[in-house]
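Page 42, continued from yesterday. The earlier attempt failed because a stray header line got pasted into the input along with the sequence. Redoing it now with the clean sequence only.
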Amino acid sequence: KDYTILTVMDVTDEVVKSKALETTRNDLKKIMDSSMDMIFAIDSDDIIVSVSAASESILGYKPEEMIGKRLFDFLYLPDKEKTIQIANMVKAGVKVTNVENHYVHKNGSLVPLHWSAVANPAEHIRYGIAREATEIKTRRAALVESEKLYHYLFDNIPVTIIIWDFETLQFTDCNDEAIRKY
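This time it went through. Structure tokens are written below.
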């Protein structure tokens, strides 16, 4: 006689896991494609493994133009040594934040970037997020100029100015006119 042997296996868990993994991948792609900040992954040889779509709006390069190339190929040469030192810190497990340096845009112009990075030592990958920093630099320069003007006026106005802490009633600052008068 002929016999047929049939094996039945419940694969519900595998199907559910597969759908969850696909959903996670789709969500990650949406994040990478819609982020206004440049999200990137770099291997231990400083090769760009992945980069978000924002690379095009920030540096002028589509992700496929950057993937497989060395990060330092896009870096402004005078910032290279500083960036190598910081990259080595990240490789050693230090989480870095608010690093500012310059990269070269596809059109040749300089782009200031503010970035943070962390390493995943098990995978020999560094992950980072970079934001174009022109606006930050402009605001910082305006703040410095405003502080200069404030100090000039504070020091040179012919009116007594005394600043004190309301809680301790201690003087914290005074201008030259206050010193002359009192």
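Notes: Residues 6 and 66 are 52 Å apart (CA to CA).
Reminder to self: strip header lines before submitting.
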